[in-house]
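Notes from the pairing session

We agreed to fold both candidates in a single pass and log them together. This is the raw record for the first candidate, unedited. Please don't reformat it; downstream parsing expects exactly this layout.

Candidate A
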Amino acid sequence: QVQLVESGGGLVQPGGSLKLSCAATGFTSEHYVMSWYRQAPGEQRELVGFSIGAGGKIRVTYAVQDRFHISRDNTNTISLQMNNLKPEDTAVYYCGARHSSYNYEPNWWGQGTQVTVST
């Protein structure tokens, strides 16, 4: 059974930075897409970006690509570096995973980590 555990959320002032990490257990091969989503209060969950396997393609959505960076440290770990944070980045951030070489829509989700950007 795949399990995903996020860490690194918290309270940060506007303009600050945070790094989120997600560690996976239960992967049976190297062919897993890992992704980051976020869900703000009253909003639908939205994609932030994804990584196709260790050393594979990484994509970050256009809205945040100048401030957010995704790295795939190894097959089982993905990180999200968030810079110049804005109040509208406040959300619960979720890590997702799918056993695939191309499809990023998760089959598994982490429990989420709260990111709050506020003075």
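Candidate B (folded immediately after A)
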Amino acid sequence: VQLVESGGGSVQAGGSLRLSCAASGYTFSSHSMGWFRQAPGKEREWVTSIAADGRTSYADSVKGRFTISRDNAKNTLYLQMNSLKPEDTAMYYCAKAKSPWFGLIYQPANFGDWGQGTQVTVSS
């Protein structure tokens, strides 16, 4: 299993970024996926998840600003981030559910594989 994030960068508050996570080594379409983030000195935080059937769930802190999506033909997970705030600054990680057809999940223990992360920095 390999998960490779890209698309991070530095933006000003109010700006947008789109993160991508290229997946390989397993049946992408059958697995729930998620995005997590971790800021310096803070614990890893769940951001959003998408189930194999396309259902989504979001943390309250990003609801209405972030959108998770998946392209099963390209084995790629996306995170569209709009109206970014300085508090969104963190390393962002994509993660794969431990087993297929898990449904919507958000607890780190239910994810079995993680990418290396991509840094997002939002300046005020």
